Amino acid sequence: MQDKTHLVDEITGHRRMRRNRKADWTRRLVQENRLTVDDLIWPIFVVPGTGIVHPIPAMPGVNRMSVDKAVEAAKEAADLGIPAIATFPDIEMELRDETGSNSLVANNLINQTTAAIKKAVANIGIITDVALDPFTSHGHDGILRDGEIVNDETVDQVVKAAILQADAGADIIAPSEMMDGRIGAIRRGLDAAGHQSVGIMSYATKFSSGFYGPYREAINTKGLLKGDKNSYYINPANGTEAVRDAALDVEEGADMLMVKPGLAYLDICWRVKEAFGLPTFAYQVSGEYSQIKAAAMNGWIDGERIMMETLLAFKRAGCDGILTYFAPEVAKILAKR
Ligand code: PBG
C-alpha cells in the first residue's frame, strides 16, 4: 500500500527498480553479464635458467619463471580451464642491443618457451608479443635511429620475429609496438611462410600510459627507457583517434582487437566493440593489478571483491575477454562457485 504521508509519488510507486533486486534468486535471474574462466588470458614472465620462480616486488603474487616453471604454470592454467596465456621475456642485459636483434634469434627465450609449452601442454593457446622492448638496450618497442623510432624498418623486423614465433608454435601473434602498417605486413608475412592459421590479436588501441610501471620492472626495461613512448602510443586524451587506429588494424586483417590499459579506457572498449564487432579484449595491465594488490595488502579495500568487480566491468563494457595477472586466482574462485 502506498502510504500517502511519504514523499514518493504514485508513478514512482509503480516503477520500483528494487523489485528485481529483492532476493538472491531475482538478482541471479536478471544478471546481464557474467565472468567465466573462458574470458581469461594469463600474461606470464619468463627468465633464462631452470627451476626459477622469482617474485616481482612491484607485482605481489606475480613471478618471473624459467621455461620449465612456465611449462608447469601453463599446465596449471590449462587444468583450471584458462584458454590462453601471453608470454613476455625478461632476457639477459648482454643480449639487448640498439635494434633488438635477439628478437630474430629462432630459439630465443620467448620461442623456447612457446616450443616447450606446446610440447607439454595440450589444450592452451599461446599468444606472443612482437614488440622489441624486451630486446632493445633502450627499452623502446622499435628501432631507434637518431633519436627517432623508425617505423618501416621496425615493421620489417617485427614481421620476421612474428614468423619465428609462429614457427615455434605461437597460436596468436599480438603486436604491441604500435607501428603503422604492422598488421597487414605481419598477415602477409605469416601467410607467405605458411602460417595461415596463426591469428593476429592487435594491440589496436595502446595508450601512452603510466599504468605500465610495474611491467617495466618485471622485464627490466625501467632503467633503460630513454624518454617516453608518446611518438607511437596513443595520447590518453584521444578516443576518436583510437577508434580510427583500430579501424586500420581491422582493414589490415586483425582477427581480434585489444584495448590497453583496461579500466581507465572502458569507453574505448565499448566504442571499439560497437564499431567493429570483432572479438575485443582488454588488458588489465600491471599498474591496475598492483594498485588493487597494494590497497588490499594495506587492508584498505577488499581485494578479491574489487578484482571480480573490475573484471566484470570489462564484460559490461563489451569485452569478450581480459588479459589479467589475476587469471589463475580468478579461475580458482570461479571453479568454487
Ligand atoms: C611494450 C609492452 C608494455 C606492456 C606489455 N608490453 C608497455 C610498456 O612497457 O610500454 C605493459 C603490460 C603491463 O603493464 O602489464 N611492448
In short:
With 337 residues, this protein is an alpha/beta fold. The chain has 12 helices and 12 strands. Helix 4 links the parallel strand 4 and strand 5.
Could you explain how this protein is built, in words?
The radius of gyration is 22 Å and the shape is globular. The protein starts with 9 loop residues before the first helix and ends with a helix. Helix 3 (67-80) crosses helix 4, helix 5 (151-167) packs parallel to helix 6 (182-192) and helix 10 packs antiparallel against helix 11 (303-316). The mean pLDDT is 96. Strand 4 (84-89), helix 4 and strand 5 form a beta-alpha-beta unit. The protein is 39% helix and 17% strand. 45% of the residues are buried. It has an 8-stranded parallel barrel with strand order 1-4-5-8-9-10-11-12, surrounded by 9 helices. It has a two-stranded antiparallel ribbon with strand order 6-7. It is an alpha/beta fold and 337 residues long. Bound molecules: ligand PBG. Residues 129, 131, 133, 141, 176-177, 212, 215-216, 229, 285-286 line the site of ligand PBG.
Identify the CATH architecture of the largest domain: Alpha-Beta Barrel
How many helical stretches? 12
What ligands are attached or bound here?
A: ligand PBG
Helix content: 25-40%
Beta-strand percentage range: 15-25%
Order of helices and strands: HHEEEHEHEEEHEHEHHEHEHHEH
Number of strands: 12
Strand-helix topology:
Elements: H1 10-14, H2 24-30, E1 40-47, E2 53-55, E3 63-66, H3 67-80, E4 84-89, H4 109-120, E5 125-129, E6 143-145, E7 148-150, H5 151-167, E8 172-174, H6 182-192, E9 199-206, H7 213-218, H8 239-252, E10 256-260, H9 266-276, E11 280-284, H10 286-297, H11 303-316, E12 321-324, H12 327-336
Parallel strand pairs: 1-3, 1-4, 1-12, 4-5, 5-8, 8-9, 9-10, 10-11, 11-12
Antiparallel strand pairs: 2-3, 6-7
Helix pairs in contact: 3-4, 5-6, 8-9, 10-11
